[in-house]
Amino acid sequence: LPCSIRSFSEAAGVSVGKVLGTMMQMGIGGVNINSQLDLEAAETLAAEMELSIELKAAETLENSLINELEEREDSAESLIARAPVVTFLGHVDHGKTSLLDYLIGINVVKGEAGGITQHIRAYEIDKDGRKVTFVDTPGHEAFTEMRARGANVTDIAVLVVAADDGVMPQTAEAISHAKAAEVPIVVALNKIDLEGVDENRILTQLTEHGLTPSEWGGEVEVVRTSATKGIGMDELLETLLTVAELNEYSANPDREALGVCLESAQEGDRGVSAKLIVQNGTLRVGDVIVCGNSYGRVRAMTDTLNNKPIAEAGPSTPVNVMGFDEAPGAGDRFHVLDDITKAREIAETRTHASSQESLSGSTTKISFDTFQERLQDGTLGVQADKVRLNMIIRADVKGSLEAIEKELTKLDHPEVEIRILQKSVGGVSLADVSLASASDAVICAFNVVPDERARSLADERGVEIRRYSIIYKLTDEIRLMIEGRLKPEE
Ligand code: GDP
């Protein structure tokens, strides 16, 4: 299978110049960085360069095959509307589980699902022939973690706010995470059945967090709900369907399926059961499938609500799949291939690669140093002609946060926009590192330290955490950085 010289050099960890140089010496001319090598050529080249490329060559096979599937464009005629994929976020006990239970007609809160401890639930529901898919992740950390792994499944976030409590710290975090994911947000103002609810207070809080309700002239729909009394459920679904229509979510049902594994389990002698969500194409019984380090042939599929057998699953459909050789990981992407040998080879290569941890180094996350480079070569997210510097700020007290933010707004630069994804009091958490990793952000810790787990995740993901104790030092560094004059940190 062909791979480009670029991928070859990346996989082998040698410069393109060196690869081309070696090819010249071997008498192969007229090639450039995008020229394709077949497996044999790659092996010959590797032998010539004395690289232990066996595994690497297979990795490029994987890359070319999977990349082709990921990048294949669907023609406009092939696209049809698909159901929106909706995720509930919010403070604990505000009613996420209860809302979903009501919508699907079971009661997990009361334990009706028979004590199944499900991590991530996913269901498709039907509203007068129009479908909505709900994916329920346990908290915004899990939501962002999926994003950090490249598994963007959510189209719309429903922010659940209990009317008696209002916006709580976790609500504020959930807002940051949903905003960073750049998905539309719909607010479910839940527990509206309770006595003495002060709606104005909550609408004000929402506005303060940048979610101005549409009834106040903003863009955020606020739906009053009661999960226990079943109030506002139709309106919530209608609102979600309207947002979906506006955003024209679409997919091509006539192609090989691809999507994401939400969770999986080894179920005794029944084998591995994996809960997948199809993002594009149609998955069918009998398909050859590869997902993370696992592969197999789809032996059986069931719907996630009633566990009834189904023969195929189209875009936005969550489905339980039997037939993997081992349990794929949550957040792993899946692809349907035409050949079981290729699927096995890819799965084996990945197993090999992950056991050597050679994959983790492959993503370059943003750091203070790379920001400057990427500022120059234009590979940062560009918004209205400005490159964007995403930041997460943690501080010891609220006063410092406010002071830092005020100073940062003074750093006006024609080409750089500073966007604060999250600012909060307290130490740097795992969720912050996930968020930084999913959104190419840098973390500034002011008079606080990251906890041990956050630190090690940051190392693993290449997320930079800078620590400060003087405000002007922080803002000076940011200014120097956006002006491109910052010295790398020791
Ligand atoms: P989660 O942690 O966000 O998933 O919240 P749960 O769905 O587990 O709900 C927490 C508690 O609030 C449970 O005891 C629910 O019965 C209760 N609850 C959820 N929604 C409502 C509501 O609309 N009204 C009232 N009064 N209680 C609710």
From TrEMBL:
Record: residues binding GTP: 90-97, 136-140, 190-193
Superkingdom to which the source organism belongs: Bacteria
Residues covered by region (G-domain): 84-232
Main subcellular location of this protein, as a coarse class: cytoplasm
This protein's UniProt keywords: Cytoplasm, GTP-binding, Initiation factor, Nucleotide-binding, Protein biosynthesis
Gene Ontology CC annotation, any one: cytosol
GO molecular function, one term: GTPase activity
Membrane as UniProt keyword: no
Amino-acid biosynthesis listed as a keyword: no
Tr-type G domain ranges (all copies): 81-248
Subcellular location, record wording: Cytoplasm
General function of this protein: One of the essential components for the initiation of protein synthesis. Protects formylmethionyl-tRNA from spontaneous hydrolysis and promotes its binding to the 30S ribosomal subunits. Also involved in the hydrolysis of GTP during the formation of the 70S ribosomal complex.
Family under the similarity heading: Belongs to the TRAFAC class translation factor GTPase superfamily. Classic translation factor GTPase family. IF-2 subfamily.
Protein name: Translation initiation factor IF-2
Residues of the full protein shown: 377 to 866 of 966
